Amino acid sequence: MPIMRSSQNVIEISEIPSSMQSSQAMEAPFFATVSSLVPWIVLEIEKLIENLDITTCLAIFGVVFVGALYLIHVIALCYGIFHLHKIYEPDATLPGVSIIKPIMGTDENLETNLTSFFTADYHQFELLFCFHSPQDDAVPVVKALIERYPDVDVTIFFQEHEIGFNPKINNMIPGYMAAKYPLIMISDSTIFTRPDGISDLAKRIMSEEKLGLITQIPYCMNRVGLANCFEQVFFGTSHAKIYLAGNFLGFNCPTGMSSIFKKAALDQCGGMVAFKDYMAEDYFFGKNLAARGYKSGISNQPALQNSAATTFTSFSNRVGRWAKLRIAMMPQVILVEPLQDCFPAGIIMALSVHYLFDITVPMLFVIHFFFWISMDYMIMRVMQNGPLTVSLIQFIGFWLLREFSSPVIFIKALMEPSVRWRNNIFHVKMCYDTLLTLDGTHIRGYLLTRLIGHGSFGAVYEAKCNSDTIAMKVAVEEEDLLVEAATLQKLYYSDISPKYHFTGRYGPYSIIGMELLGYDLESIRESTPWKSCQRPTLIRMAYQMVHCLQALHEKRLIHRDVKLSNFALSQPKTPGNQVSVKILDFGMSHEYSDAEGNLKEDPRGFVFKKMRYSSYDVCLGLDPAPKDDVIQVGYAILYAGGFDFHEKLKSPDNELMNWKRELIRAPGETLPLMLKFLTPFFEEVGELIDILPVNHDLLKQRIQQCLPEMNASSALTLTEEDGNPVLT
């Protein structure tokens, strides 16, 4: 049998065609040759790596970096040709759109821009005009258009109060809360829309279930004037290519001047109010939606800006403001952004290729220049959807002016971090907006799972490590965080503040790990049906708040930033879900005297008289003292009891100062009717003097006298009803 199998094998081999035999005969030496070359190739690569100096590495990096910029041009041009200026047929099945128009002031083109929305070709929409005040110059323009187009669904809103840091969000909140359609469009007053502009946005966002945000890529109407033409060249070239390529590659790059989103999607992120303290709210809309699985994109039509007030100065200020926000949110752009313009990139490419391949620098730079400007010209023609309104010579002139002015604007943005928006000036801290988006980050073995809150001194996250859950505060300013850490350590055994765990650094941020507390008292107030705590609850809250100040002042510390949101409840304990009130957020705290009673200065130089919730004496210019903490607690107690203290703070300066003075001089006459039972406490507050220690025990007695039938020192309990916290 073995011999027969062998003979069969010989017969099978002999039956193989001669061509295949020769092929196999050729393959054997080929693979042998390749195998012998592998060690040589590996050796040559090792030699290359050994001889690779820093200059060669930089040259290779330069070629790759600028090559990527070339690729961005190509992607932007191709994506623009493919994606922009598509025309959709009207679709009556699309949902209704609520269009929010934030407006401040007017110009010659405002009526034209707004008219384009009144006459838009869409089957179901409403216009929600949001003004800062009834005295705005644009109000008569809108009212005249309402009379001209009575069949259009229009509502006018005036800003009621400031809910956060971002003035645009403050302006739009009333409109957002009143919106009745599932799609929300935000459109600035300078935007002109084509008749099918709303339909294009609605069709695009409803094309995919997971599309949550669609923006219109910024461009400009055809307008006369050098500054207007210059602005159009900017938005049609360098700005357009970044937006087109970025959207194709899936980066988050929305724009707030004209966008549409699904209201249900943004509500999952906390609604518009959740972005009240973000300056670049459009960027964070996209970022938060992406974190919940939604995608962003751009529409088929550009946003046509049509401001009548464009000047070279206003343009540079506007672009500089955007640069300042990018630097604050993404500090790494400092290293990249100045190098992505034509001339810096050309110098890098020419020198790199010259070093690697010995090709002359001038020739390389000329080739680079003509490629760059040609691609920008073609991209702008795509944005324009036809011939440009400027000649080729004019285009080159405006293009060169943009390229040469760009580094000047960027350097100015670095040197002057303050941002002017409308009538407001904001001081932007580098990395501040970024520290609000650290969910999912691991720091010191802890995973930051959710953002609890944030303020002027940083953001607080819930952080978990196995079964251990703590609060972690992240801040940009190290000095203020170190002050807070020192205060927490001094109060460790007082049981009136979060327990201190650790302090450290994470990249550009300073961090504190501390005990995780429960609801803050302002959240408790907001969860009540009438935004008012019941009297028995209020009395016990007040008693424990004064107790917190007593422990703080006994350590010769003053808080100086006492408000309802800076008190929180401990985690519930058995029996009966008992909780206690604790004080937090010690970024402004100060050790006001030494052991011998000598007063100590705070080198940080806070200007407390400008804080509208400061006490009467502090607003006059006196330094905060322990009694001023007590007065601020009084304001917090009134707010918890249903008095709208935030609304009172909007009063004219003289009226507010008179109210603060009379509240402690004649509380029986000044307190609102529903809170007059607190008169004994406020009468005692009025007796406090700077040079004398605060008698906290006496203040507690006065709180007890406010409601004698209730034991003010008894425990508080926390329960839930319909998912809302209830403190009793």
TrEMBL record:
Kindly give the SUPFAM superfamilies that the UniProt entry links to this protein: Nucleotide-diphospho-sugar transferases, Protein kinase-like (PK-like)
Q: Which family does it belong to?
A: Belongs to the glycosyltransferase 2 family.
Main location class: Golgi
Give the transmembrane ranges.
Answer: 57-82, 347-373, 385-401
Q: In which pathway does it act?
A: Lipid metabolism; sphingolipid metabolism; Sphingolipid metabolism
Answer yes or no on keyword Cell cycle.
no
List each coiled-coil range.
none
Q: Name one Pfam family in it.
A: Glyco_transf_21
Q: Does the keyword Ligase apply?
A: no
Q: What is this enzyme's class at the first EC digit? A: transferase
Give the highest taxon in the source lineage: Eukaryota
Which GO cellular component term is one of those annotated?
A: Golgi membrane
Membrane topology label? Multi-pass membrane protein
Entry's InterPro entries? Ceramide_glucosylTrfase, Kinase-like_dom_sf, Nucleotide-diphossugar_trans, Prot_kinase_dom, Protein_kinase_ATP_BS
- What protein does this entry describe? ceramide glucosyltransferase
Residues in Protein kinase domain copies:
446-728
Keywords attached to this Swiss-Prot or TrEMBL record, sorted alphabetically, are: ATP-binding, Glycosyltransferase, Golgi apparatus, Lipid biosynthesis, Lipid metabolism, Membrane, Nucleotide-binding, Transferase, Transmembrane, Transmembrane helix
Q: Which CDD domains match?
A: Glucosylceramide_synthase
Q: What is its EC number?
A: 2.4.1.80
Where does the record place it?
A: Golgi apparatus membrane
Q: Which reaction does it catalyse?
A: N-(9Z-octadecenoyl)-sphing-4-enine + UDP-alpha-D-xylose = beta-D-xylosyl-(1<->1')-N-(9Z-octadecenoyl)-sphing-4-enine + UDP + H(+); UDP-alpha-D-xylose + an N-acylsphing-4-enine = a beta-D-xylosyl-(1<->1')-N-acylsphing-4-enine + UDP + H(+)
The record's GO molecular-function terms, alphabetically, read: ATP binding; ceramide glucosyltransferase activity; protein kinase activity
Q: Which GO terms describe its biological process?
A: glucosylceramide biosynthetic process
